[in-house]
Amino acid sequence: MKITIVGTGYVGLVTGACLADVGVQVTCIDIDKNKIEGLLNGIIPIYEPGLETIVKRNVEAGRLHFSTKLSENLDDVKAVFIAVGTPPGEDGSADLQYVKNVAREVGQSMNGYLVVVTKSTVPVGTSIMVRDTIQEELDKRNAEIEFDVASNPEFLKEGAAIEDFMKPDRVVIGTDSQRAREVLESIYKPFQLNGYRIIHMDIISAELTKYAANSMLATRISFMNEIANLCELVGADINYVRAGLGSDPRIGKKFLYSGVGYGGSCFPKDVKALVRTGKSLGYELKILEAVEQVNNLQKEVLAYKIKDYFKDDKKKTIAIWGLSFKPNTDDMREAPSIEIINQLVEAGFTVKVFDPVAMEEAKHIIGDKVIWCETSFETVKDADAIALVTEWNEFKFPEWDRIKGLMKTHVVFDGRNIYERERLEEKGFTYFGIGR
Q: Known catalytic residue: 28?
């Protein structure tokens, strides 16, 4: 079985490496020559635990290949997966120009039956655009070549993508022909042998499932942040409330953590896109509009707490621990740290920052408005407060006695509620959490 994947970003590279690891012959395509050159030399363009190992193993085994030429990698291929970016436009709608470009090139170059699969997160109805674009190019060539389109949305968590792909909760496949269904079933057959669940549906439903899933998770996060803010007003503790909620099997324990808001490449973009889809059809998705509004406000909460505590004395130094939007990734897209840092700098604070992985990526976004440090200890030297923003493992059990000796004043703003208030107060720290 040979397939081609267009796009070597997060989704495309993880998909290609993992399918190669179960025996599929995979060629990953990208128009970025530098990225492909790097991959050919073993340089992975993104940080994802385990990805470098699996890429190297399958390149050496001859199952994973890289190229900049889609037209040269369509012969004897059963399926082409579109895994290019769909960034949000100014109005929140997904930008489909890269998806359309791939569809156009497929129509210009294909010589035999193909299943063209959208793996990128795309709005409902994109399959129709892909089908029409391919057919237009075939008509220009006077070529009568059969093809099908399909939807196979990804449900990967950054930081755990390899395990998610190899041991999926579900594989969603949207098709409108038996032939396309059989091709995709053959690609995912190794996962069926392991007992993992494949859910077949129509293409439109598959496209909507991806957006609905991410929007539901975003809703849970914003809901818990609302309850956390209410906890502070009434004197409750969100950790107790979360335990009570999560014990209900109808609700479950996942995605019930309050914090500084969600970020990343999926939740913000997908909520916006689904809201935009509703508006384009004359329907207002009021819950999701509120989810987005709550999240935008939640990114300001930690900075507000810091500014409120120090009141008119803003000539203080704040140590920021963690920059990426979540642990185990260098992804800075929509990261809450950006808004927190911007507000603190604007208010006059000196900000020192450290992240175990995302420093280089963050420098492109944040620039020279902060002091870049090489360790968490360097950030706290002469600092007046620590603000935990991303709960990396190395921040979970700090050497508080050593840290206390390095700081000027001893205040901790725990943006992820991972520290024990009583323990810190016993050591002489002033503690602030979210909803506590």
A: no
